[in-house]
Design goal:
The complex is a heterodimer.
Chain A lengths: L3 H16 L7 E3 L5 E2 L5 E16 L2 E16 L4 H17 L10 E12 L6 E15 L2 E5 L1
Parallel strand pairs in A: 1-3
Antiparallel strand pairs in A: 3-4, 4-6, 5-6, 6-7
Helix pairs in contact in A: 1-2
Chain B lengths: L4 H8 L7 E5 L2 E14 L7 E11 L11 E4 L2 E10 L4 E8 L1
Classes of the chains: A alpha+beta, B mainly beta.
């Protein structure tokens, strides 16, 4: 059985694959290798950190708070900044429309966005890193089932 | 003894040596073209690998250099985006692929 964290990551990637048309299905989960020009624009989804608290003793239940990061990579001559923002719009709208992550979580919402631009290469690139907070609950003895 | 540095530069910038032909400002000049692939880092987890086109050229061949001037190398078209003159008659020019 998979951890609920994986199910959430996969669900978000699926929602973005469908909802973010500007990246033409180039949505990766936990990508660790560099992106070449041919793979842009693209999105990469990561579940990077998590904290948890004991929510109840009977039955023992964990309230989890996870950071889910969505990185946006775009390259364009004149519109790199606008392209990044346009992709962010589609990401926010798609994730916002799946507020409970298909029943896997209590809620997901955007908490921060970092954006950087670079003109060192043959075309300017824009990279945004969006961090979402995901709250979900599991039994203390079953991390593969959302409650 | 004086060193004929200009002659050395001309030798290096010869298309029979290290240089290529560059179409620029209605004419042709010769310059050394580098197009190394580099990792571009940002706030994301992974870098982007992208080519970094640069020309090393004689400053005298680009007397009126300006941002967004067009040039071509072979079948590839570029715009000049930035340059650094090293003060010895040679400049490095940063290019953007069109």
């Amino acid at each position: 059985m998979a951890h609920v964290r994986k199910d959430i990551r996969d669900r978000v990637a699926s929602v973005l694959t469908t909802g973010v048309t500007l990246v033409s299905s180039r949505v990766y989960t936990s990508r660790v290798y560099p992106l070449s020009e041919a793979k842009l624009p693209a999105i990469a989804v990561y579940t990077s950190s998590e904290t948890s608290n004991l929510m109840s003793f009977q039955p023992p239940t964990l309230q989890r708070s996870m950071s889910l990061t969505v990185d946006v990579y775009a390259r364009a001559v004149n519109t790199f900044d606008d392209d990044v923002d346009a992709i962010c719009v589609q990401i926010e709208d798609a994730i916002g429309a799946d507020f409970r992550v298909n029943g896997l979580a209590k809620q997901i919402h955007l908490i921060s966005t970092d954006i950087d631009y670079n003109g060192e290469a043959e075309q300017p690139v824009g990279i945004a890193s969006m961090t979402f907070e995901v709250s979900y609950v599991t039994s203390i003895t079953d991390a593969s089932t959302a409650r | 003894m004086t060193i004929d540095f200009a002659a050395d530069i001309s030798t290096i910038m010869d298309v029979d040596e290290f240089a290529v032909s560059v179409t620029y400002d209605g004419g042709t000049v010769s310059a050394i073209f580098d197009n190394e692939t580099l990792p571009i880092e940002g706030p994301g987890f992974v870098p982007i690998h992208q080519a970094q086109p640069r020309l090393t050229a004689r400053t005298a061949d680009f007397p009126s250099i300006a941002e967004d001037q067009a040039l071509s190398i072979g079948s590839d078209n570029y715009k000049i985006k930035a340059w650094i003159d090293d003060g010895t008659g040679v400049m490095e020019i940063q290019l953007e692929k069109v």
